[in-house]
Sequence to fold (748 residues):
Amino acid sequence: MSAPLLQRFSGRLLERRWITGGIALLLLLVSLLLGWQWEQRENANQVRQVTVQARILAGSVAGALAFDDYQTASEYLMALRVNGNIKAAGVYNASGSLVAGFAKRGEKVPQHVQRQAPQIEGSDLVVVEPVQQANLELGSVYLRSIVEPLSARLSRYVAIGTILLLAALLIALLGASNAAAAAANRELLEQIAAREMAETALRQAQKMEALGQLTGGVAHDFNNLLMAASSGLELMQRAKDQERRDKLSEGIRNALDRGAQITQQLLAFSRRAPLRSESLKLDEHIDELAGLLDHSLRENVSVRFALPGDLWPVEVDVSQFDVAVLNLAVNAKDAMPHGGLICITAANRPGALGGRDAVEIAIQDEGAGMSPDAIEKAFEPFFTTKEVGRGTGLGLSQVYGFAQSAGGAVSIASEPGKGTTISLLLPRSLPQPESGAPAEIDAPHASLKGLRVLLVEDDAILNELVGQMLEEQGTQVLAATTAAEGLALFENHPVDVALSDMVMPGEMGGLDLARRMRAMRKDFPIVLMTGFSAAAEPAAAEGFTVLRKPFTMAALVSTLEDSLRGRAD
Amino acid sequence: MPRRGWSGRGVRRLALIVLLTLWALPAPAATPEAEVKAAYLYKLASFVRWPNGNGAEGAFRICIAGRGDVAGVLGQLVRGQQVAGRPIAVEQLTVAQTDRAKDCQMLFLGRGSASPLFAATRGLPVLTVGDLNNGTRGGVIDFLLRDGRVRLAIDRGAADARHLELSSKLLDVAVTVAR
Fold:
């Protein structure tokens, strides 16, 4: 933890040029100071050494000076000759006159000396020490010694000085390059940030464009449907013939079913549609599928099915599966503008889905094929190769979403000019008894008759319509438009079952209401209505019955019956 | 008087002396013999240590017998001077003044004064100085003339007998040292 911190800190430091420059300068200054101090100490040391020598000499020649034995004094002086550093030495009597002395070649011994502190004269160190015996002043001695010359001293420092200078230079250089690198890095980061912003803006623009296309397409489709429904209604009101009225009513029904299908597709794309997985036997479903495809494709395009008889059932949402196959078939058809053959084949693939058994359904066309680039983007929402207005770019997205939510996979094999094969891998369904689909109910259902139903729905039209549907089944309806109102009704009136919307304005939602009712009356049958899987999942997880919108009267009746049966059990 | 107790350094010194005598050294200024002896007597005091308890109080007494001239010079020389913090008194003694000689720190024995005074101070811490060229010998230190200069001869045995400590520096400049 501290190591990266330190690193970052030192990195920051090194980023600033003046700091590294300062460090380098400081290093030089400190080394100069140390060198100077060392020099001073060396000098003092030399002075001390020569002074000690002078004192020894002074002590030695005391007798000789006292009793004028200059020969002995000379002997002591001569002993100093072997010391290479001493250039001249002398012994002086009490009046300061030379009595004995020697000097090396080119040097001179002064004839007279006076007391003085040790001092450096040129490159020499001169020391004069008094000669004393007890308190008797006998004279003085004189020593002139070599002090190491400046050039010699400097040459001693050259090596270390060079190293120091190089170190300082290196630090300064490193600092400079580091600062340059840091500056470049900052610039790069700024550029990256700018590019990211631009990309985000571009993506947003693309998304808005795609949304525009989608909403335009959807609005167009819905307009057509609404047109069909409203004109159908108008015609129905005028029609007197029952047969014609039935036909028109069926037309309206079809238009509404298609509308529901479109919303299904949109929800599937957004992966919000609740999946109603069931076991599907493809070979049994093939006729229905063939009819659907025949209806949607042009005459010059034919479809061939090749399904083996021992095909495993698959676990899918049937309507989603139909939509996916339809989307793929439409794409195949669009890829063959001059007509052709669409092959739909299926085969068992043991262990193909991460060890799970699967069934592969392949839809093959003889069309233009796809480029690798297009394959890569094919599953992205709103990606389309079709011209504007013809496709929403949601077809393959729906296929992808379907395959994902079914726990399967989808892949594309194609080359430009050689047709396209899209393969769906769907998980094998484990055998289990299938519950029969609720039968279409025309007459009021006996079991619901006289039932007191609490209906909570914020949408006034839906509230009215569902209320009518319930009343048609012979139930008594208590209608509320908010959860709070529904709770009040529940508390003050006897009810047998509650039917509530999930997403409602106000502080309390449908799920909260259901929880409170369940808290007050355990095992009270509650059915929650919703069009969003996101809302449906937690409700189902808490054990509430969920009725998916839009629903038919038959689905409503059977769901209500299921919830009541659950209570009876 | 033969030297005893040769040391390595002594041998070397002797060799050097021999060498150096080949070179002419500047001759010291010629001084009258008395002046030199007076000065040497004064200087000798700094190279000798007397045992404690003998005349530690009062003046440092330098007694001179038989050399009035030396005493005169010395009297002037030591005026205002001290030895070991004591004022110096110069006294002239006659041969008969043996009692006074016992209290002297230094006793210079000039012409014809040797025997009685020397005998009187035997075993006492009195530094006796003989004047060899004037016929007195047997002092702890004897002045002698060599090459026209006053030199010293030292008898360490006599110094020990009188409980006197002689500085090695003094021994250094002695012409002869007897044990």
Remarks:
- The domain at 31-178 of chain B is CATH 3.40.50.2300 (Rossmann fold).
- Chain B has one domain: 31-178.
- Residues 8-22 of chain B form the longest helix (15 residues).
- Chain B has seven helices and ten strands.
